[in-house]
Amino acid sequence: MHIDILTLFPEMFPGYLNESILKRAQEMGKLSIALHNIRNYAAGKHRVTDEPPYGGGGGMVLKPEPIFAAVESLVSSSQSPLPIILLSPQGRPFTQTVAQELTRQEKLVLLCGRYEGVDERVRQHLVTDEISIGDFVLTGGELAAMVLVDAVTRLLPGVLGAAGAAETDSHATGLLEGPHYTKPAEFHGWAVPDVLRSGHAANIARWRREGALRRTWQRRPDLLLTAELSEADKAFLAQLAEEEVAAMNKKSADQN
Q1: Residue 129 designated active-site
Q2: Which end of the chain, N or C, is more open, meaning fewer C-beta atoms within 10 Å of its C-beta?
């Protein structure tokens, strides 16, 4: 996969993109990233990229000309249509499903907004998608772009090393991921569950599945409405519901 990132601040990216999994993905040839400074596509001596909004109001708006010029330089060298994604708090929510969807693209263009955003003509006539990483506002789209690149890259085949490693992550199966343990077997008197040291693959798999169900039930029960659940899963959730009712009844009795 190749990703072009359009930004006014390309210096923000190398420290993150050239470390850890992202560095390895690039060394493996699974990922290539090109940073493009939008200012380089602005006309005039001062290369102005932003102006006050028509009609007044605070802040500055990114001008359409340099953005169009930057994207058109990429489109002209591409053999196929490019997905052009604007990182924006007004975009569709970024989820694990969206990340998986984007892995099917050979190339992506990420446009990082700044200030009060971009001229509306960029939205209407240039970008093909808008993505938001959450219901909050950042100073610019650079952090959002890094989040998107990270989430998509780790889903590319072979990047994580172990086969199927990303398939058990939180949200990959519609559930949150359950607890994990490593050495030492005991720490401050807290022991690793015996089942994880038993070597019984089926029991370990079921323990992990139930751990994921329990954590999702406790922290994100809304996810259970759309997750694919087996009959065993449903039975375990019914057990959790009974435990919760029993705990509430006990608490009420103790208070009385």
Answers
A1: no
A2: C
